[in-house]
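[agent] plan:
  1. take the single chain provided in the ticket
  2. run structure prediction with default settings
  3. attach C-alpha cells to the ticket
  4. add a short note for the reviewer (M.T.)
[agent] executing step 1
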Amino acid sequence: MAKNIYVGNLPYSVTSEELREVFERYGEVQSAVVITDRFTGRSRGFGFVEMVDNADAERAIEELNGSNLGGRNIVVNETRPREERGGGGRRGGGRGSSGGGWRGGYR
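[agent] step 2 finished; step 3 output follows
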C-alpha cells in the first residue's frame, strides 16, 4: 500500500516535477503534486507525494524533513487523515451576523 507524505514550506518556485525528482532519490514515486491557488495558479507552498514502498517513504521522511530545498527548510511528514467536516450552515461572524465582534462603547 502506498504512503502519502505531506511536504510543507516549499519554495514557491518548486514544480510538481521537481518535487517528484527529489523523492525519487529514495524510491518509486506514484504521484507528486504541488498545491496551487485555484484563482492565480501560483504555488501555495506545500504539496503531497505518494510513494509506492512504505520503507522508502519512511526513509525519505526521515532524511528530507528539515532539509534545505531552494533556500527553505522543508517540513516532511506522513499525511494525517482528513478530519470530517460538518455540512452546510453558517458559522456566524460575517456581515449581518449577530455573533462576535466589538459591542462596547467608550467609557
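[agent] step 4 note for reviewer: The two ends are 64 Å apart (CA to CA).
[agent] ticket updated
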